[in-house]
Amino acid sequence: MARRTTSNSTGTSPGPRNRTPQPLPRRRRTVGDFAKALLALVALLVLLVGVPGALATQIGWPLPSGSPGLDWLQRPITVDTFVNVLTVVVWFAWAQFTACVLVEVKAALSGVGLPNRVPGAGPSQLLARQLVAALLLVGATAASFAPGLSQLGQQLEGNQRPVAAAAQQTPGGLLGSQEQNASAAAALAEQALHAAARAEAAQGAQVGDDDTKFYRIQPPEGRHHDSLWEIAERHLGDGRRYKEIYRLNKDRTQPDGSKLSEASLIRPGWIMEMPGDARGGDLVEVPDEAPAVSEEAQRQISDYARTGDGDRRQGGARQEGAGQGGGSVDRDTAHISLPEQRPAPDRGHGQPEGRGQGDDQEQGQGQGGDAQGDREHAAPAAGEDGGFGLPQALLGAPLLAAGLLGALGRRRRQALWHSALGAVGGRRGMEPPTPTGAAADAQDALLVGADPEGVRLLDRSLRGLAAALAGESRPLPTVYAAWMSGNGDLHLQLAQPAGRPPTPWQLGQDQTFWMLARADAERYEDVDTAAPYPGLVSLGTMDDSRLLLNLESVPGIVSLSGREQDRAGVFASVAAELATSGWSDRMTITLVGFGEDLTPLAPNRLRHLDDVEALVETMEAETRQRRGALGAAGQDSVLTGRTGPAQHTRWAPHLVLLAAEPSAEDAVKLAELAADASRLGIGYLVGTESGDLPGAAWEMEITGEGRLLAPLLGLELDAQLLPVAQQRAVVELFVDADPEHSDDRPATTPPFLVDVSEQGRPAVYARLVGPYEIIGLDTPDGERSALLHEALALLLLHREGVHPRVLSSALWPRGVTDDVRDALVERLRGWLGGDPDGTQRLGSDATGRLTLAKSVVSDLDVLRSLYHEATQGRGADSRAVRGRLLTDALVLVRGPLLAERPDGRYGWLTHEIIDAQLPLLVADIGLALSAFHLEKDRAEKAIEALDAALGSAPDDERLWNELLRATHATGDSERLRRLAADLVARSGARGLPSRTEALLDELLPTWRSGAAAVG
Is Membrane given among the entry's keywords (predicted)? Predict the structure, then answer.
């Protein structure tokens, strides 16, 4: 089970590379340096002061003193006019150059990110950059600026990282400015003095028994920036102890006047007090006697001591709380924190309807817990289930499995409908191919691991929140992550406080958490609004809580480091869940460097690009387009426009998954694109071997043990992965279900054919088409009857066999123990009994799946067999046999599948496609029987067969069209006219299908006037 990293953790775990900062190279200033600086100063004075002065004194005001008139157009163009126009151009050029100088000076002094680009000032800004660099190179504070200052006019990628977002919104380690060496040294002395005084006043309350030590944040070296994790790793032996350093220095004034408020936002030149057990040559210990300081410095030290002591007490309390099993990571340290867990309320409605208090042990198992938590608890690792192991990657990913299972069901239904439009009778197949091998295991794992109820609640909760905020005219807050806790509650972690949430949402552990209890989520209904946070995707679990990161909202790039095969599992899981998630709309996912074989999962969402060059070209164009669309709509971000009246595809998210590490040049281009991506609804997840990627706002690492680490975010998760073997198995399921793929196949045979002759009477006969009845078995005890009937129905609908864990998951969606499941199987085996030859009617195949003997038959089996025999068997060559078989088949249809089934049961039918197969099968039988009668001009018999089929398939257009033809064959025009009017009335505002309209035009040309009269 995953555990949180705590501040007093002493174990080791994989972390970022220990990149010890090296001191910047120092060189003596030469005469040439001073000469360059002097020339740069003179050039700047001439350009900034001399040019406007010369223009003002020599030429004067170039613009006319009055408002323009029509007579201007008639005046001749003189030399003065030409000079004035040139003067205006020079003034504009001077203003642009001045702006370039100000931008470059600001960037050089702050050391934060790239200088802003002045529009249309490429050469001017380059000249300004070189002049400012030459001037500042020999200044007194030159050593405190960003490294590579002498190359400010050259390529930037070797020296700076593009800024990803404002400092308050960036948890990814973007560094701020570094102060002068002199002020840093003075501040170090002040901190030392303060520490000594505080140690005496607190009577030895400082951390550890050694002298207090301090560390000065090092300036960046190339692309490497110092971080609290690496400082803790070097000097405390464990990077996870960075929280101790953070608590010792949080909210204490630094030499530049700013304060440490986020563990990921530290600046060169800052001073960090270290725990007493810190070791290393870079540390400075408290001196025996502090140097004399001024009265102003003493006042600052006094204020500093008060804030430091208060913070230490608070930090100690937080640490004690963590040691006592508190439920959250230090909320001030990480942008992504684990929400505090609340005890699950005792809700009476937690037990499904239809399961009374008198039910046996099997019915009571798992009903009081949360679906997600209990299902995961009841799903052991592969190989731990008596040989019934299934792919753990799919078992432990309930939201991913539910999305894949739902998409697979939709794909199979599309194949059925696509096939239904193609032919009638035996010229097509009704049955989707039965998966085998790894594909069968993958399908079983999806059935066991899926949590469709969790997906439904998440979707309704997010859309309900969006609708409530829109009703209050409030914007959507930026959400960094969502946590689905073990008791079913949903926690949204906001980028910043956004006030009180709308009812029934509540504030969580602080102002940046909004929480919705599961009981309140279950009362939500479907609302007609766009999905507010479609970029949420599962990354893994921590302490029984599942993290969904909102890739769309990250202020910059999310980088993922680790071995290539480990990264591939994360990328595939993210792509598959985003492509099939139920809480998103109109999403585009671009895959680069991997995933071409994943596109069958969702061809409308997934697209594959060959290389990074194509990606950069595509995203540059889309970024420009989205910026223009936002500007034209008057919106500042996709969130403000996504759920408003201007809903449009421009608000749809676009998530880029780049598995291959980009080159340095491409990485800088991507960083520039990602700097504004969160506002535009675009997210970037980029893989890297080194773990060092320019513009990375959040950095994560996947280990070989399946752990997902993000130290500066405070995350250590059990990662959600989709390994290559499971990818191939899942894709095989989708490829086999593709309607275009299935069209080329011959007609399929039903998975189980029965003897439809008089000699083929079964020992046990179950009637499923209509009310559920069983013939040939005694009724079991009242407490166990419903459960055994449901188990038998599942086995009858899957003659290929049912995995024991699939059976238990279907009967107990909230989970059940193995012994209870095995007890049910034995009870079912005893109830079904055996055949006269001693064979048990409930057996197992070579893979361990439960199978029924041929002596146990359902009316659905007979229905399929009769239709197959009539169209592809004996009836294909004998008209009389065909008519008798089709008539017998239609008599079996007594209503919908498992009619009058009790509430709260048979929820597994939502995963099946039998609800689409049965109406199509009945329609095929009705159409075939109608054609049989029309061959002999028995129109009334044909109409009777079609009416019977319409009772089970009322929406099948083929039946209505054939009914029109049969009615026309009677020669009764008035009857045909009434049928046409009835069809028009049924169609409502949608209107008649085009094929039906064309048929009516042929059979009854006056139908439109009659329909208008009826209307």
Answer: yes
Contact 426, 476 (CB under 8 A): no
Q: Phi first, then psi: give them for residue 301, nearest 5 degrees.
A: -65, -40
Strands 545-550 and 479-484 come out as antiparallel
Supply 797's token pair: 């609908």
Which run of H or of E encompasses 699?
Answer: strand 696-702
Which residue, 506, 390, 380, is CA-closest to 440? 390
CA distance 87 to 59: 8
- Tokens standing for 803? 């995995």
| Distance (Å, whole) CA 18 – CA 279 | 15
Contacts of range 439-442, beta carbons closer than 8 Å, 24 or more positions apart: 439/729, 439/732, 439/733, 439/736, 440/847, 441/390, 441/391, 441/729, 442/391, 442/394, 442/726, 442/729, 442/730, 442/732, 442/733
Pairing of strands 856-858, 764-767: parallel
Query: Which alpha helices (DSSP H) does 833-878 contain, by range?
Result: 859-872
- Tell me the pLDDT tens digit for each residue of 273-298: 888 888 876 676 544 434 444 454 44
> In whole angstroms, what is the distance from residue 799 CA to residue 470 CA?
50
Task: Give the type of residue at 652.
Answer: A
In 812-913, alpha helices (H)? 818-832, 859-872, 879-891
SS3 category, 217:
coil
pLDDT digits (tens, 9 = 90+) for 598-627: 999 998 899 999 889 999 999 999 888 888
Compute the C-alpha angle 1003/1009/1015, nearest 5°: 115
Q: Are 722 and 587 in contact (CB under 8 A)?
A: no
Helix (H, G, I), strand (E, B) or coil at 621: helix
d(CA 941, CA 969) in angstroms, rounded, equals 12
CB within 8 Å of 576: residues ≥ 6 apart: 400, 403, 404, 598, 601, 722, 727, 730
| Burial classification of residue 959, based on how many CB atoms lie within 10 Å of its CB (0-12 exposed, 13-18 middle, 19 or more buried) | buried
Torsion of CA 383, 385, 390, 394, to 10 degrees: -100
The pLDDT tens digits of the residues spanning 880-939 come to 999 999 999 999 998 889 988 888 889 899 888 888 889 889 999 999 999 999 999 999
pTM of the model: 0.66
What sign results for the dihedral spanned by CA atoms 808, 809, 813, 816? positive
What is the maximal distance between C-alpha atoms in the chain?
119
Residue type, 532: P
Mapping DSSP onto H, E and C, the string for 577-591 reads HHHHCCCCCCCEEEE
For the chain, how many residues are written? Answer: 1015
Cross-strand bridge partners of residue 542 = 545
Token readout for 634 is: 């008057």
Query: C-alpha angle with apex 460: 459 to 461, nearest 5 degrees?
Result: 95
Residues linked to residue 970 through DSSP beta bridges, in sequence order: none
Q: Each residue of 919-943: b (16+ CB within 10 Å) or e?
A: bbbbbbbbbbbbbbbbeeebbebbb
